[in-house]
Each structure stands twice: as C-alpha cells, then as structure tokens.
Design goal:
4-stranded antiparallel sheet, globular, Jelly Rolls
C-alpha cells in the first residue's frame, strides 16, 4: 500500500495555516458536541492528575452522505475552515488513506489470532473513527517537568495510525516502565495498539503508553487516525476465546466505552 507523501504534505501545509491563523478564525469551527472541529489549548487532559495538555487539535471523521442519519453523540457532521479552501479535500483524502491502512493492519491482527480476517472491521460502515491534526508549540523548559504536550496515556480505541513530522518529541514507555524517544523516521508511520483492541483480545495485544514533550524550539504537527468501528460493535473477548476463558473486563459496546473515555479527557464534555 502506498501512503501518498504529497497528500500528507498538502494536509500538513493546510494544518499549519489553520493553527497559525487568528483565534477568531479558529473559533468559527470550535469543537462541537459531536467531537468535530477545533479544540484549543487546555481542552484536553489525557491523565487525571496531570496538567492540561499543551496542544491544539482539529478533529474530523466519517463524512456523512446525503440521507444518512446522524445518531450518535460522538459521530456527526464535520466542520471545515472555509478560509482554507483546500482543507476539506486534503483532510478527507488523508482520512480515507489512513482508514484503509488501519483496516488492512487489523486484518493481520485477526489472522494472527486465527480469526476471520474481517473480524475487527466487519462493522465499520459508519465508524466512530476520527482523524486529528495535533499542534504542539515549543514547550519552554521553565514550564517544568510536569508539563507535557500530551501527558502519559494509552489511546482510547482500537488502533491508531500516527504520521509524525521531522521535529520529534514522541516518547514511548517500555514494559519495565522506562521511557525512550521514538524519533521520526522518514517514510514511516507509527502504529499503536489502543485500549479497545487490548480489551477485545484479553490483553494479548497490549496498548502502548506514550507521551509528547516538545522542547525542540520548533512547532510540531502530527496527523492522527484513530480507528474505531460502528458504535454498536460489541467488544467481548468471549467472541474470540470462548466462554470458558475468563475475560479480564466486562463486555461493552464501542460507543459506550468511547463516550466514557471522552467524558474524562475533554473539558468541553464536563
């Protein structure tokens, strides 16, 4: 699968134009109750006892077609910054590319457990997947060691596809609890197993703790795709391992789980 460099760069350029624009422009597409649009500084906190993350985000998702019903609290109409005419097309191009890649990877995850290859993606006609442009300003050292671009966390959903820029700042925690840098490598993407996939597989696939510290002296922009299936998808390890194996967590729908996690992480939902 070719992940088109030119399409990534086109979206990155539009993203930088957006985040460098005035607050008044960004407020025209302020975050909606359906988790679409611009989320400003202080709007997210990935860890309960941490400071709010030092970042801004722009979030979009599945693009509704004429006649489709918008029926879920975190899936709804996208909001687009009209002052950047190419933004919508470039953002949807990226969403389609990253969504296709995530589905291909999840076919491999399913085959690795001797499941039908579409096991994790068979209910993804109107997914809860969302993409984000995430903007980190340079973080002055005087802000202290307890300030992060994104504090330590694991991703909420099933699978995350991350496209870094050349600045760096991503750190990963290993199984011993030590943190190490995950520097950008040209032409590659970072893929994280997220909490719902870990829950679904009873911990066989483990979600990855990570954080961002941007003390580069430069602005940093990441492009993220968080893949999640339709909200009614039932996350139950018994569907994989059978009822005789003890599940580490109770069954839950994808939608209910994400609503709970969003309520904890995002200030606009409190």
């Amino acid at each position: 699968m070719v992940f088109h460099k030119k399409k990534i760069e086109a979206l990155r350029n539009d993203g930088l134009k957006f985040f460098r624009s005035s607050k008044e422009n960004k407020e025209l597409v302020a975050i909606s109750e359906r988790h679409r649009g611009w989320l400003g500084f202080g709007g997210a906190k990935m860890k309960d006892d941490a400071k709010p993350d030092l970042k801004e985000s722009f979030i979009w998702g599945y693009e509704y077609q004429t006649g489709e019903v918008d029926d879920h609290p975190i899936r709804g109409p996208n909001k687009w910054p009209d002052f950047i005419p190419s933004f919508k097309e470039n953002a949807l191009n990226y969403f389609d590319l990253a969504d296709s890649l995530a589905k291909t990877l999840l076919e491999g995850f399913a085959l690795g457990l001797d499941l039908k290859r579409d096991f994790f993606i068979r209910n993804a006609t109107q997914p809860l997947s969302r993409a984000s442009l995430v903007y980190y300003p340079d973080q002055p050292k005087k802000m202290g060691d307890d300030q992060f671009g994104v504090s330590a966390h694991t991703d909420f959903g099933v699978l995350t596809v991350l496209c870094q820029d050349t600045v760096g700042g991503l750190q990963i925690q290993d199984s011993s609890g030590d943190w190490f840098h995950a520097p950008p490598i040209e032409g590659t993407l970072v893929v994280n197993v997220a909490d719902l996939l870990s829950r679904w597989t009873n911990g066989l696939y483990k979600s990855t703790p990570h954080r961002v510290v941007n003390q580069s002296g430069k602005e940093r922009l990441s492009i993220v795709l968080a893949f999640d299936p339709n909200p009614e998808t039932y996350i139950n390890p018994a569907d994989i391992f059978g009822k005789n194996q003890k599940s580490l967590s109770d069954p839950i729908t994808c939608g209910d789980y994400l609503i709970w996690r969003f309520g904890k992480a995002f200030s606009y939902r409190k």
